[in-house]
Amino acid sequence: MTENSKTYQFQAETKPLLDLMVHSLYTNKDIFLRELISNASDALDRLRFESLTKPELLGQDDKLEIRLDADRAARTITVSDNGIGMSREEVIANIGTIAKSGTRELRAQADVGEQLSKLIGQFGVGFYSSFMVADRVVLETRRADAETAVRWESEGDDQYSLSDAEKSGRGTTITLHLKPYDPEAGIEDYTDKWVLARIVKQYSDFVSYPVVYTDRREGGEVSVEGEKGENAVIVEDKVLNTMKPLWTRPPSEVTGEEYVEFYRNMFHDPGEPLLTLHLRAEGRLEYQVLLFAPPNAPQDLYYQSTETELRLYAKGVLIMERCAELLPRYLRFVKGVVDSADLPLNISRQMLQQDRHISQMHKWITAKVVNEIVNLSANDPERYLRLWAQFGRTIKEGVMADRDNRDALVSLLLFQSSHDPEKLTTLKDYVGRMPEEQQQIFYLTGDSRGVVENSPHLEAFKQKSYEVLYLTDPVDELVVQSLPEFEGRKLKSIGKGTVELGSGEEQEQQKKELEEQQAQAAGLLELLQKRLDAHVKQVRLTNRLTTSPVCLVAANEFDDSPFVERLLQRGKGGGPKQRRVMELNPKHEIYSKMEERFRQDSGDPVLNDYADLLFGYALLAEGSEITEPVGFNRVLVSLLARAL
Ligand code: ADP
Ligand code: MG
Questions:
Q1: Ligand 1: nearest atom to the Cα of 90
Q2: How many whole angstroms from 584 Cα to the centroid of ligand 1?
Q3: Residue 554 burial by CB count (10 A; 0-12/13-18/19+): exposed, middle or buried?
Q4: Smallest CA separation from ligand 1 atom 7, residue
Q5: Which member of 75, 100, 243, 476 lies 3.0 to 4.6 Å from 471 by CB, making a disulfide possible if both were Cys?
Q6: Which residue minimizes the CA distance to atom 18 of ligand 1?
Q7: With the C-alpha atoms ordered 420, 425, 431, 437, is the resulting torsion angle positive or negative?
Q8: How large is the average pLDDT for residues 253-266?
Q9: Other Cβ atoms within 10 Å of 63 Cβ, number
Q10: What is the pTM (predicted TM-score) of this model?
Q11: Which residues line ligand 1 (CB under 6 A)?
Q12: pLDDT tens digits, residue range 590-600?
């Protein structure tokens, strides 16, 4: 300590925070450097700002920069800037006191006993974070408009000392006397050039001032100072950050290759993004957005644990690596950067969730992303198909989850259909192909195109040449159920309820005919129903079949299809099945023969065998499993034998 040194107690509120830092178990201690560099960058910003009214603060060829210097032998590193600096009073007010709401919040939370290590990651912890890696910190600073400098020093206990200091230029120099190298405690060797370079790259790459590392090497022939000899030290400046936040440049000045290059570097993905969206929001909130849709879906896209790779920056400083608050969950595949001038470094997750600005940003960015995908689908359908193949399911989630952008998302949906085996169709194109008298959009769900295509439910639609959408993704059914109509047409499963085909007149006619037949067949239908009561709710005649004798349908629109039912059962390990409706084709030979038998002898046991067989057949035809395969086989064999 120097003679004029004076000791001060930290403000009462500060001590516990310092304690937290000193004894921190938080593993990501590297962030101390981010904090110091960001403070330096702020100080340079402030100098620039003050020099607008006091031009004398800036010299002619004043290079604004942040410097890092390491001394391996002494185990110190130094972070310095030639920014605004601090007066003695400012040092006391800024460094000896907790003024920041974020830090205070951190302390409040820590008091409540939340896990500190988690909290440090969420809150920017500012200057004090240096005590995570250093057991003594010395700060020397000279305000830009002052003649004298001041030295602040502390060991992170309950006091600090202030004294006058010699400092030639304006700005602040912070020297950390590092704790011993201890990788297990997260303390890297911060005197190592590569360690520093890595941390700067990770957190401070886009800070707009150069972060210059003073590289000293021995063994050169001529040192910078011009000394000659074997062991002359070469001192070389290395700028560690690129300072080029692509997103702050006007989009018109960035080339496609630059975007691709940036994407590859930042997200370590050799591929080329399917979508690039670069925007600047201006107005009450200013922020830049640079987003990408990656070329491939990650393995864990549908896991609960998957996290959005959206990085949140405040003026070029990374404040959150995975900011889920800026996009809805269904757009979790989008990667990129949002940089806001208005966010404090120490914003926490909790604060983000409550922040009104953030929710406005969320809304704006979401609409822009959806809109950009819609543009892609219109302007580059081939590329859109690739995006659909990777992320189509998340778009379906969006249809169900995002009311604000629902129409746009619905326009993005693609389905297989009976129209073209090679191509997917949009709902709009489907509607465009509908014959005039068709009133509904028809769909059928099933495991695969092959199964759906051969389903008996389709027969009457094929005959009428009505297009049917084939929904082969398990979530499709939920999606269409959340969508009662599209452009005024109802979406209708042809595996559920009754079907209405043709014009109103035709429908009336068919209905009447069926009712008459049904009345005549009441006895037989009742017998079959009785036999199959455990499995089916009702047995009735239908107009939906042309060549098949029988099929099963859900009793009403909101019942699950067998496809979804199977999925649900798989998930829950069985469970009661819904009883469905068995529909018989009155035009089929089997039906007429059964009816004849029934008329001759209403107690003929062969009718029960037929009931079992038809039920089993209907299950197989739609791709379901037979409920009682052994019984089914026995009946089948005995009927085959008799038929010979
Ligand atoms: P924050 O940056 O969020 O305000 P910090 O704990 O990082 O919190 O810093 C506290 C204050 O100390 C800053 O607001 C600033 O006034 C002052 N300060 C810290 N580092 C510097 C610096 N390099 N130059 C000038 N002032 C600084
Ligand atoms: Mg700070």
A1: 16
A2: 81
A3: buried
A4: 126
A5: 476
A6: 39
A7: positive
A8: 88
A9: 9
A10: 0.68
A11: 35, 39-40, 43, 81, 83-86, 94-95, 100, 126-127, 172, 345-346
A12: 999 999 999 99
